[in-house]
Specification:
Structural class: alpha/beta
Number of helices: 5
Mean pLDDT: 94
Radius of gyration: 14 Å
Number of strands: 4
Largest sheet: 4 strands, parallel
Distance between the termini: 17 Å
Strand order of the largest sheet: 3-2-1-4
Strand content: 5-15%
Oligomer: single chain
Length: 128
């Protein structure tokens, strides 16, 4: 059974998906975006391969779009269908699968991805 917190997150994010980027200037501003690029480049520099990446809690695709610049293929997962739709639209359908899934119960086999990342997700989890 899904927790109340996750159910609330689904309802909220399904409602605000179309305006999420504009409404969250604490994330979508020049400083934070530059910081994201720097931290991501540091995190992936030691990856053996840059073929397949996973973005847990991809939302509208903030981290996903950055991963698409470095990896051949990216999988973004989220528990909100509306956020996944925004992510797919934002990415312009390039080398991306968007999967409706819970980040605490990944539907993938072990060692499938070259890189796994998440951005602004932990505060949405009942027990991070």
């Amino acid at each position: 059974m899904m927790s109340y917190i996750k159910q609330a997150n689904i309802r909220i994010h399904n409602k605000e998906a179309s305006i999420y980027d504009e409404a969250h200037t604490e994330v979508f501003n020049e400083f934070e975006q530059r910081s994201l690029v720097i931290r991501l480049s540091e995190a992936i520099k030691d990856c053996d391969e840059l073929k397949l990446a996973l973005d847990i809690g991809c939302g509208t695709g903030n981290l996903t779009s950055r991963l698409l610049d470095s990896f051949e293929y990216v999988v973004g997962i989220d528990i909100s269908k509306s956020m996944l739709k925004q992510c797919k639209t934002k990415s312009k359908m390039r080398n991306l699968d968007c999967v409706l899934a819970d980040g605490e119960h990944l539907p993938f086999r072990d060692h499938m991805f070259d890189f796994i990342g998440m951005y602004s997700v932990l505060h949405h989890l009942p027990s991070p």
